[in-house]
Amino acid sequence: MTLRLRVALMALIGLGLTLSAGLWMARELHLSPSFPWLAATIFASGMALVLWVGLPHHPFPRFGAANLVTMSRLMLVSLVAGLVLEDRSPDRARLIVALAMACIALDGVDGWLARRSRLSSPLGARFDMETDALLILLLSLLVWCYGKAGVWVILSGLMRYVFVGAGWVLPWMAGRLTPTPRGKTVAVIQFFGLSIALMPFVSPRGSGWVAGLTLGALAWSFAVDVGRLWNQRTTDDRR
């Protein structure tokens, strides 16, 4: 059995679990009938990208436990995505935060497993990064939808995609960046900051301040990365 076929079977199992969890949540929490199908669609789309875009860059014969953990995180993020179109209520805000916290708890486990099993790869790093980016985008969107901050908060979720898009226009912006503790720390700040802003007990004024501080931290981190890429460009030009 080829690696792609094995990963496809794992993805089908994950899709079944996501859909089952969505159907259970829809029944028990009185969510709309579309909720489980939206969550399943988000998960299926993410795993399709892994299969057809990411897997060719995986140099190992095994998918690895680390990528399975990231796949589990994608399942949780997909459930959060399904809640974006649901009615707003304090209980649903708490549910979103609980799902986000579970995803955050698993963040870092995948990297540790990859290093321990010596299966670190560009696929694993990108899979982890894009799952993080999607969660930040969803949380920022939900903070705005719940009226906890202005529309500007969505910049926290869009900044990563704008950064990638800039690389299509400016080749030097598409340079390779080595991951840093700063980047991971700022990502964790985004998770916690946006989750705190979404909590019902935090006033809109307080959540606005929290969201603003997290956005400022993210903007600073991206500015540092842009500076690193610019320095790499000038160094390459001198060679």
Describe the model.
The chain is 76% helix and 0% strand. By secondary structure, it is an all-alpha fold. The chain has a single domain, classed as Four Helix Bundle (Hemerythrin (Met), subunit A). Helix 1 runs antiparallel to helix 2. The longest helix has 35 residues, at 204-238. The N and C termini lie far apart (46 Å).
Low-confidence stretches: none
Strand element count: 0
Order of helices and strands: HHHHHHHHH
Task: Please give the radius of gyration in angstroms.
Answer: 19 Å
| Total tally of structural domains | 1
Work out the oligomeric state of the chains in this entry: single chain
Number of helices: 9
The CATH topology, please?
A: Four Helix Bundle (Hemerythrin (Met), subunit A)
**Helix share, percent:** over 70%
Largest sheet: none
Question: What structural class is derived from the secondary structure elements?
Answer: mainly alpha
User: Judging from the principal axes of the Cα atoms, what is the shape?
Assistant: globular
Mean pLDDT: 91
CATH architecture assignment: Up-down Bundle
So what's the CATH class? Mainly Alpha
What fraction strand? under 5%
Distance between the termini: 46 Å
